[in-house]
UniProtKB/TrEMBL annotation:
The keyword Zinc applies. This is 43 kDa receptor-associated protein of the synapse. It comes from Bombycilla garrulus (Bohemian waxwing). TPR repeats lie at residues 123-156. GO terms for cellular component: cytoplasm; cytoskeleton; neuromuscular junction; postsynaptic membrane. Belongs to the RAPsyn family. Residues 363-403 form the RING-type domain.
Amino acid sequence: MGQDQTKQQIEKGLHLYQSNQTEKALRVWMRVLEKSADPAGRFRVLGCLITAHAEMGRYKDMLKFAVVQIDTARELEDPDFLTESYLNLARSNEKLCEFQKTISYCKTCLNMQGTTVSLQLNGQVSLSMGNAFLGLSIFQKALECFEKALRYAHNNDDKMLECRVCCSLGNFYTQIKDYEKALFFPCKAAELVNDYGKGWSLKYRAMSQYHMAVAYRKLGRLADAMDCCEESMKIALQHGDRPLQALCLLCFADIHRSRRDVQTAFPRYDSSMSIMTEIGNRLGLIQVLLGVTKCWMIQKELDKALESIEKAQELAEGLGNKLGLLKLHCLCEKIYRTKEQQRELRDHVVKFHECVEEMELYCGMCGESIGEKNNQLQALPCSHFFHLKCPQPTGPRGCPNCRRLSVKPGYV
């Protein structure tokens, strides 16, 4: 298969894919991969296969094609191709919740920069790195990466990237419980879709609606949450987007739990867990198990709640997801207080505070924990957080958290 024929077949596959004929598109692209003698065409078709498998939630296949793409990029000896292939490798590992590997590959991308095309990818690299740091609950570095990605998006007038970063920032602020910002950023993403997204994939609309649904639920606006989640789910079903379907089912279950309708919540958690397990989203599984635990607690089935916690704790420890561990210690504290088991209660109180200290999840001014309840937060240029209600640090001494870290043993 020559260069022109390769190009035609790739375009044919794209047309099929955009018409929701995914399996036919995959067959066309696989034939190109088998028969094409054009390395640049093979590189491009591998990019199509990586994107398609990502959206279907086939993350192991996504990783497999990313590895092949790296070899093709080396054959081409082009730094732009190599940077793009390392970014795809980073994204594949991000989807599989291999966050340390994601960060490592992102750093490789940034070290390889030089050409204009490579520099334009830096925003996407920063976004992927931010998502990985967020998965590890390293909030200061996650925010730094998201802000870099947002700057790249603005400098390059890249509205699609800006939309994706806004959704990640919505997720970020949901996790640290500033629900006003958690809603603001996906609403901004939805505005970008409405203003600029005529030719975009519907996944951008679905993504913004999902993150709005999560924020609305946290704010207690359950009817709004349900409306947004239903719209997101409709698009996810139309496009066979299994990862988003799993997230929407989780959100539906959380909404029903918020209404204390546990019998309706349980089957939705089960459906979400099934897809999360199928696609390998271990971070999502932790969220499902947290929801299931809270349902058992509502029903006062404390031993069953502890069984769910044990499964979630194993996952959180394996991923290095510190916020997940903090939430689990908090739930254990409530359970053992109810069971009047003082030794276990003290153990989880200590571990909870160790997690808070490790993640620096406290206000540098008043010393109270951040992320325990809904609070409006303000980030300094160093990305440490303070309650908006607290007096903001001023003067040359700067951030109290940074000063505290500078005098810790081992810091210079």
